[in-house]
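Lecture 7, part 2: worked example. A protein chain together with iron/sulfur cluster.
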Amino acid sequence: MTIRELFIDAEAADHPQTAAIRSRLAVPARVVPGPAALFEEVRAADDPAGRGKQVLFLTRNRGAFLKACPGTRHYTCCGYRILHVGSYCTMDCAYCILQAYFHPPLLQYYVNQEDMTRELEECFSTPVIQRIGTGEFTDSLIWEPWTNLSRGLVQRFAAQRRAVLELKTKSVNVAGLLDLDHRRKTILAWSLNTERVIREQERGTAALGARLRAAAAGAAAGYPLAFHFDPVVIYDGCEAEYREVAERLFAAIPPEQVVWISLGAFRFMPDLKALIQRRFPDSRIVYGEFITGLDGKARYFKPLRIQVLRSLARAIREFAPHCCVYLCMEDDEVWRHSLGFVPAERGGLPRMLDSAAARHCGVEEG
Ligand code: SF4
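Predicted complex, written out as structure tokens:
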């Protein structure tokens, strides 16, 4: 969706980042004393989740930029850290958790990046490997047309040796990153899905072929890459279609440049169902064999998850036998039956991913 209006928090009005974004984003802009009136306006819209994609609020992050990823204790979690640069997204996926996660859902971008830099410098001085991503509360690369956010981050991460940055996207906005001396400390990552899921559930995202071409450009520029098959959606014929995506992926990029690939079956909080039914009336995604998991989310019946995740993992291993493949938010039984091992046999999931980062990105402990 296109941003139509810019709202500027009075506290952020004099910040140089605000002026830079304002000059690049040619839409009407208004300085407001705080977010209250804007939040109210978005909440009162017919479609708040859609309205929140049309207005951008420039403000200060008054909390922490670095946060622990909100995994749950019931499923295997990967120990990731989120760099909270902004929130929400201009693209519009039916299954997007962010529609229901923020109250109200609204594009917000934090201009006080001097505070972010300070937190990152502290983090870089701790003697352990850190995996950090900007793509949990937003798509990492939607900000590229109006900011230098990711360029700056790639350069900052290139100047240290303990942390990797993962930029996760469904866009193709990598052109501004290709000439950088990244020193392999940034992983360019794409969420992938079948042509059908992209067409039916991922409004406004780049087509599969375009994502793969952008990944190939990243590979040619020497970046380590990652891919996320998440959400894996189960439907008649899905196994063959996911296999085809794996085949196209490895026809486009060299397997040895892939740091990790995650697989995550579609899951959703109950309150997302009504929102999807209202905003995406043609979507069939919430109709299937679901059960409620230990974390309260609806998930496909376990044997179905195992069958489809196993089939996709096999396809990936056929083309990239040495690639680190992991599951997102699954228990040991699903790991065992889908991938043939449980994380504890390899030192735990965080250790598996740290080792992959060390191998591909040259990060080290100590
Ligand atoms: S690209 Fe990601 S963040 Fe954006 S709408 Fe889709 S799922 Fe949500």
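Residues 89, 91-93, 96, 98, 138-139, 170, 205 surround iron/sulfur cluster (CB under 6 Å). The chain has one domain: 64-88+114-361. Keep this in mind for problem set question 3.
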